[in-house]
């Protein structure tokens, strides 16, 4: 990370330094990412949140430059930044649009709002949906990951696709069968990674089909792609069922009793013969 305190008094106002481009000659775009993505911010045209805030405090941010929100920067952060830029910077410093709004945790079956990874979910066709990848700075999956390199961990992307299929199937069921209490059961999941996903804006696109051939359940098949900067980075497919809650609870209880009975049986040992 570029250390402003180490700059000499003779350095230009916008020194060409790691993580921050030279904006003295042309308007450039700079992405702002959370501090935990500092390794990625060692590249040009990207800066960490703390570095940007420090530049503003030292009156070292001037245009022409356009700031865009990357991952780990919330709407609340962006609104706060807008106030500081308006108060402290010239009009050539322009903020891009607000970051995506994460879904409510109940839509993705999360206990903590901080762990919601998708936002701005919308239906774009009869069987097509889209949403934004939203990685909060306090998301548990990224806090607990050991491989803190430049890219987004694959496990986090898998969770994002899972959250999307939960949210989409809930909306389909609620729209078609609002009076039936369905419970979701996952059956199959597959994912392929073609490219790294980096802490910049990314989108998830889903195609979904449904079939209610039985009265007590709805079958779903879904395919998801993760897109970033014009490239398809990952492809996932899901199969699941939404089963009437009383039915699936009875099935679960029956199989739990079966498994417990089998597990408590004496273990047979085989004699080893020479």
What descriptive keywords fit this protein?
274 residues, alpha/beta, 6-stranded antiparallel β-sheet
What gross morphology would you assign? elongated
CATH architecture of the largest domain: Roll
Head-to-tail CA distance between termini: 66 Å
List unreliable stretches of 5+ residues. 1-21
> How much helix, percentage-wise, in residues?
25-40%
Determine the number of helices (DSSP H or I, runs of at least 4 residues): 5
Overall domain count = 2
Largest sheet: 6 strands, antiparallel
Pattern of helices and strands: EEHEHEEEHHEEEEH
- CATH topology term of the largest domain: Thiol Ester Dehydrase, Chain A
Widest β-sheet, arrangement of strands = 5-6-8-9-10-7
Q: What is the CATH level 1 assignment of the largest domain?
A: Alpha Beta
**Tally of DSSP β-strands:** 10
Query: In terms of structural class, how would the helical and strand content be classed?
Result: alpha/beta
Beta-strand portion reads: 25-35%
Name the average pLDDT: 85
The fourth-level CATH homologous superfamily of the largest domain is Hotdog Thioesterase
Write the layout of secondary structure elements.
Layout: E1 28-33, E2 46-48, H1 49-57, E3 65-69, H2 75-88, E4 93-95, E5 118-125, E6 128-133, H3 140-143, H4 154-176, E7 182-193, E8 203-214, E9 217-228, E10 231-244, H5 245-263
Parallel strand pairs: 1-2, 1-3, 3-4
Antiparallel strand pairs: 5-6, 6-8, 7-10, 8-9, 9-10
